[in-house]
Design goal:
The chain is mainly beta. The protein has one helix at about 40-45, and strands at about 15-20, 55-60, 65, 70, 80-85, 95-100, 105-110, 115-120, 125-130, 135-145, 150-155, 155-165.
Length: about 170
């Protein structure tokens, strides 16, 4: 008889990339440890392959991350690959991603699988845009002070876990 057990199931590898807005360095860091963290989320995302079966965790240290451009895309997944951007599981309010109000924080499209966990998104035009075919999981996330929309859903898919708090300042 053919059976499936935990020992013969495919488990994706997990790669953690560390980011610290205070002590990280985009030019000399390698993102492989908290001590050699990058300074920006954008730099960490540059390390992600276009297509992968692995899970890439961008681990954010406590602090504020000012985005000058939208975080786009993610990991295209033919199987189990995904990108996770993770803040502080104990207090999502101590990891804040801030914008200038003129851009979206995140814009994901097909076929990407993305998790946003334990963080606050603050002061963007749109906090999150989920385009056609994107699968985005929000886990204990606060989205606040967005001019147009906390979440803009354009045929994407959203999954909510824990508390997701959306507070708008404008339209």
């Amino acid at each position: 008889a053919i059976g499936v057990s935990a020992s013969n199931l495919y488990e994706p590898s997990v790669v953690t990339i560390y980011v610290n807005s205070t002590s990280g360095k985009d030019q000399t860091g390698d993102g492989m440890t908290p001590q050699t963290a990058y300074a920006t989320i954008q730099r960490a995302q540059e390390d992600l392959p276009l297509v992968s079966n692995s899970v890439y965790v961008i681990q954010l240290a406590d602090g504020e991350y000012n985005l000058s451009s939208t975080i786009n895309g993610g990991v295209l997944s033919p199987g189990l690959g995904r990108m996770t951007i993770r803040g502080n599981p104990t207090d999502p309010g101590v990891v804040v991603i801030r914008g200038a109000g003129a851009i979206s924080a995140f814009d994901f499209w097909t076929p990407t699988f993305v998790d946003l966990e334990y963080l606050t998104i603050d002061g963007f035009h749109q906090g999150l845009v989920a385009e056609v075919g994107a699968f985005v999981t929000l886990r204990n996330v606060v989205i606040r002070n967005c001019d147009e929309a906390g979440i803009a859903l354009n045929d994407g898919h959203l999954i909510f876990h824990g508390t997701v708090d959306i507070n708008m300042s404008g339209g």
